Amino acid sequence: MTQSMRIGFLGAGKMGGILLRGMLGAGLAAADRVAVFDVFPDAAASVCKQTGARAESSARKLVSGSDVVFLCVKPQQFAHAAEEVKTAFKPGKSAVSIMAGVPSLKIQQALGGKCGVVRVMPNTPCLAGQGASAVARDTD
User: Fold this and answer.
1) Are 35 and 8 in contact (CB under 8 A)?
2) Residue pair 9/53 in contact by the 8 Å Cβ criterion
């Protein structure tokens, strides 16, 4: 990732917020290049207040305005979220998933088959800023 990339966080729950704060704290992104959407507007507003990121009014708008989208929704919510945003995933966009048990191919297909997918599995110590993550990219 570069400082000029526009980054979106689809989901502002506990793990999404932690990853965003860690990314900003490590200098991997600038807050003014990060947007957040959550179905619970108060969750997005809280994360944005803490980080300086901006809240988007819809998931589709978030994806349309992002180069890389972190999928920080619960696995059982993914199908609904994907249906709303799949037409916004154009070639050249990337999705980074933290959803356990959702294979890359399923993510790619649900998002219209046009984006690259990276799966990241953060562990519980991330909650205290001391975690490690396993990373796997799709095979395309």
Assistant:
1) yes
2) yes
Are the C-beta atoms of residues 7 and 33 closer than 8 Å to each other?
yes
Taking phi over 0 as left and psi of -120 to 50 as alpha, with beta for the rest, 48 belongs to: alpha
Q: For residue 13, give the nearest of 29, 35, 37, 34 by alpha carbon.
A: 37
Token couple for 107: 């993510």
Measured CA to CA, the distance from residue 118 to residue 44 in angstroms comes to: 23
Three-state DSSP state, 96 = strand
Task: Look at strands 133-137 and 116-122 and give their pairing.
Answer: antiparallel
Cβ 38 vs Cβ 72: under 8 Å: no
The model's pTM is 0.89
22-34 per-position pLDDT tens digit: 889 888 899 999 9
Long-range contacts of 49-55 (CB under 8 A, 24+ apart): 50/17, 50/21, 51/17, 51/20, 51/21, 51/24, 52/24, 53/9, 53/20, 53/24
